[in-house]
Amino acid sequence: xxxxxxxxxxxxxxxxxxxxxxxxxxxxxxxxxxxxxxxxxxxxxxxxxxxxxxxxxxxxxxxxxxxxxxxxxxxxxxxxxxxxxxxxxxxxxxxxxxxxxxxxxxxxxxxxxxxxxxxxxxxxxxxxxxxxxxxxxxxxxxxxxxxxxxxxxxxxxxxxxxxxxxxxxxxxxxxxxxxxxxxxxxxxxxxxxxxxxxxxxxxxxxxxxxxxxxxxxxxxxxxxxxxxxxxxxxxxxxxxxxxxxxxxxxxxxxxxxxxxxxxxxxxxxxxxxxxxxxxxxxxxxxxxxxxxxxxxxxxxxxxxxxxxxxxxxxxxxxxxxxxxxxxxxxxxxxxxxxxxxxxxxxxxxxxxxxxxxxxxxxxxxxxxxxxxxxxxxxxxxxxxxxxxxxxxxxxxxxxxxxxxxxxxxxxxxxxxxxxxxxx
Length: 423
What we know:
Elements lengths: L23 H10 L2 H5 L18 H19 L3 H10 L8 H11 L8 H12 L17 H7 L28 H7 L10 H24 L11 H14 L6 H12 L12 H30 L15 H19 L5 H21 L6 H9 L3 H14 L2 H12 L10
């Protein structure tokens, strides 16, 4: 495909030539699609736990939807669609049980070894923990993806110490690589300038934002947590504006969020009231589809206006998102944050989830490799020091699904009988 050099197709561990009916990037996508880490996302929280509702998205279904949005947007801009698809499918692989709440818990438990970050864990999975290829000296090369695909999957191409400063002067808590994964990071970032994301990574990032901004709202409405007509009430409207500013747009004028909310309400597809009927479900689906198109088309038009009509790949261009569109996307996320993620009713659940992960880490640390999965038990025995062993424990807990974390905690920490039954 135009825009890609032979070096973009190189793999960390060289592999012999294969049949030509698939491209190198198609193979990358297939390796991620068949990975155990992707399958586990089906039982990991997106916003609500997978066993709480049959409709709400899981991390897996969210990733599939992000891939669909990203693939089409990327292809329209000249990116190889399989690279973008692979990046989108992999973007949440590193998330631990219980979503961002679990991420916070594991970060607190690993401060002395470099912290925990879902995106850095994604790179660790792709380049180490998922098994496909090994170097001759026994080191894992993970799925051994191409340079272009690894670069595309890296949403935050910097270490924790190099994270950019936020408006308050503190460093962002987001980063994309742990210290002991720097060799592969340096390899696939060869030729990149500073902390610049590749074009394909930018498409993935935007597709993620667009997807969960509309889908989290749809899930919340279907689950009965709120209705969009509530926003006509001044108190509810103030709550959404405040949450949007607090969570996503701290330096933005509240009037701009108000204006974005008014623009969204003014679209003909805005569903103010949903009653659960097939007709209202169809209206909600049309709203999500039309808003995805609205946001994607705005970015496409703005990007083409700046960079022209040539294929836009790797480090040759940037995705341009109009300011009004950025605020509209953030406002949609703010609606979900106000009524779902920051709901007071969920705070005791969040505290319990953090307690489960904390106690599992403590158990595994105190018991050595006794309870670790054989994959991680081998890593524990090969670890050079306590820091490396601590990272193995964090890797193990991060790999668990919501249900296995609860089950392992019940049986191993609390000593309750194993309850899984087979029919």
